[in-house]
């Protein structure tokens, strides 16, 4: 089963936030906006413990949390809704898994510092009296009355045991034919589903693996402390490899200590070899030529023998302890171990053996049953890009995206890196912001963008997947974005703005070129839906067809091209903010407003009217319309700003206002 929605109240920077999740979800936004609070809240939901009054949301009126007083009403709650429940999930969750979704809430209260876990259970109408009755005179008559209403309930006679009645009710509720008759019972105690780490029912359904940004792998790998991230994985590996051999051997050979020692050694070696092979297969994608090796250290047998595992990292044939590796290598190893060690179909098949006296058919049936019971894997990573070389970060982003497409895997990342959100993944974004002292969140989808611009989802998808450059992802992380058609606009505007004392990047403004006028509409809608303010610089193209050497002057093809440019420009004016009311028009003068700049033709036509710029461009070996960006940049840094043409100056002034406005 997968997490589809989280509601968080009063946790750290979050007062009240509702967030939906996809199979791959990227949480982005400025520092302090609440991204990390979401993944830590989710980690607390699964594991519990560790909260204090300092974790309760504060409105900023006091720098320190108010001390706890008698009757304190402050609390923290995290509610998680799961969907895609499998038959195995439903069996394990019982009455909490009868609906299409399963919802649970963990709450911490300041007054007593205690936690409570409740869930929304489903049950048949009126079943509570028969199910909850404690006396024969209560549950038997109640069940008989239910049979009058639901004759399909089995006749258990007049002396039915309580257990038989409960079983009959559960069978009726589990029947898909009765699903629409079930009634929801909110806030039913569900503490029994959230036990010790590694043994909880909820972890048998969905196992969350959380990799925080600040994580010391040397203290995690091979550790079996209660709160380590690898406890349930490496710890379970050692327990499964050692304790099973102990138990099996004690039953069959109570006096053969030597045989037990051999059995444990072989069991641990097999398990560690299998896991090392799985980890190395993934690790090689991140760091070619790097592998890890588990070396079991098995003490002489004692009634409570324990196994430790030393983890060595082999780079180019040289083995060293993991603690002696760089942070990037350590983190890559940690994340691959977390993925590879969670039980999945491959690991279950690798470790599956036919037991003594077991038929092949029975062994296959047992393996099939084990596979059905496997949990889904929820991977939460805070700042996956940290300590990673850019090339490795891109590789890791691709691996996580591919991983999220595998069955029973969900990936959640809180990131500041555009590598982890390609343009076509914009619907997976949850963009956080801060209004006052509260976290806000924005998201959108292909369907919403299509509706906003009056186009089909197919056409939106085509622009996003085939036309937008990968650099567009930078806009998701920017405070403000200037969208331009081409590289010339970007290079000249950025250089001149810096020369004028208003470097756009320092103001959190990204200038992104979209490759043409026809590619501006969709990215504009996407950024606006994500609450990213935009400024658009667009070519009017009034002279484009007239100066083109492709057309004979006055020819029908030239007139057709002119009409096409007119149509495209007018379409842009129609959707630009205040475009129509501003008086902007095709073949009109260049104009700049608070929301956009529309050149009469293009920026190079404006630069032609700046003699000093043309001179500086010629001095560095360039010329207009050759698209040599290095030449344009050099000229922009050398030109005399006092002679700047009015349209260019107006554009920069309006852009400065845009940068300062938000």
UniProtKB/TrEMBL annotation:
Pfam families: AAA_15, OLD-like_TOPRIM. Residues 1-47, 247-421 form the Endonuclease GajA/Old nuclease/RecF-like AAA domain. Residues 476-541 form the OLD protein-like TOPRIM domain. It comes from the Bacteria. PANTHER family: ATP/GTP PHOSPHATASE (PTHR43581), ATP_GTP PHOSPHATASE (PTHR43581:SF4). This is DUF2813 domain-containing protein. It comes from Nocardia nova.
